[in-house]
Amino acid sequence: MTSAFAKAIKLGLIGDNINRSKSPRLHKTAGQLTDLNVTYDRLIPNDMGMSFDEVFEQARLGGFRGVNVTYPYKETVTSSVTVADPFVRAIGAVNTVVFDEDGPKGFNTDYTGFIQTYRSAKGNENPGAVCLIGTGGVGKAVAFGLVSLNARLIRCVDLDANKADALARALQSLGSDTRVEVATDAAVAVQGVDGIINCTPLGMAGIGGSPLPGAYMRDSNWAFDAVYTPVETAFIQDARRAGLEVISGYELFFWQGVEAWKVFCNVPVDHAALRLAISGEDA
Fold first, then answer.
1. Torsion 201-206-211-216 (CA) sign
2. 25-40 burial, b for 16+ CB within 10 Å, e for fewer?
3. Which residue, 45, 50, 49, is CA-closest to 12?
4. Is 74 designated active site?
5. Which H/E stretch holds residue 40?
6. Residue 89 pLDDT greater than 50, yes or no
7. Are 229 and 203 in contact, with CB atoms under 8 Å apart?
């Protein structure tokens, strides 16, 4: 064990509406499984009476090894970190930050975590044509993941057409074979697609709702919801009733967490043991 792990490894999560997040349990359990003393704090700017920038700076100066960043700050944080990976720079969103001596470094484990999530559920099957609803931080990461998975078509749907256009341009600049389209009405954009993905916060505990009524899902094959608190969102329930194969947001939570653990600590952890250990209710 290196000297960097001689004392507690302080980690945290900055975001809104994160009281039910399971990230603290995942990382503290990973620490227990690898004999590391890990703490993991929820850092909610509004509850702390601080701005995101103030919370981020407090963590940087407060001995934190790193932080995860979630809704709605994944794009905001990019101005406060250095991103080495050109692909992550193109995504324009960061969800994992390590505080190094030469400054904060940004990573996107939503991107790598989504690829692992999809492959775990669908193997080598091509995603086909996909309706991606929500083009914010996690939407960007998932969209780039779909390009890496060689999706035939991505329809970027957002009520803010400028956001959807910006993501479409970023995807097109990759020069892949994936066709990219933009829409503002999910009920129209979902026509003729194989997969439907929710990357909006609709469905989260404390927010509720769904970005697409179940009646519009019937002609598709699979659905994925990036929301995992609760796991059984209205979107997932509607998709299941419509006969679609569903991929839970819990899987993205797990795999992005595993990827973030590698960034934070670079210590191997048994994935099966970790999944089993955190499968119950939060401690």
1. positive
2. bbbbbbbeebebebeb
3. 45
4. yes
5. strand 38-43
6. yes
7. no
Residue 142 backbone class (left: φ over 0; alpha: ψ -120 to 50; beta: rest): alpha
Cα–Cα distance measured from residue 139 to residue 252, given in angstroms and rounded to the nearest whole number: 12
Strand, helix or coil at 248?
coil
Mean pLDDT for 143-151 is 97
Is pTM beyond 0.85? Reply is: yes
* Residue 102: burial class (beta carbons within 10 Å; 0-12, 13-18, 19+): exposed
Interval 214-267: pLDDT, tens: 999 999 999 999 998 899 999 999 999 999 999 999 999 999 999 999 999 999
Burial (CB count within 10 angstroms: exposed 0-12, middle 13-18, buried 19+), residue 41: middle
Q: At what angle do helices 249-265 and 109-122 cross, to 10 degrees?
A: 130
Q: Bridge partners of 69? A: 14
Tell me, what amino acid is at 93?
A
Q: What is the mean pLDDT of residues 203-215?
A: 94
Nearest partner of 167 among 177, 153, 157, judged by Cα: 157
CA-based nearest residue to 163, from 191, 187, 143 = 143
Q: Do 12 and 62 touch, CB atoms closer than 8 A?
A: no
Give the pLDDT confidence score for residue 71 in this predicted structure: 87
Catalytic-labelled residue, pool 22, 74, 140, 163: 74
What confidence tens digit (pLDDT) does each residue in 264-283 have? 999 999 999 999 999 875 43
List of residues 6+ apart from 35 with CB closer than 8 A? 1
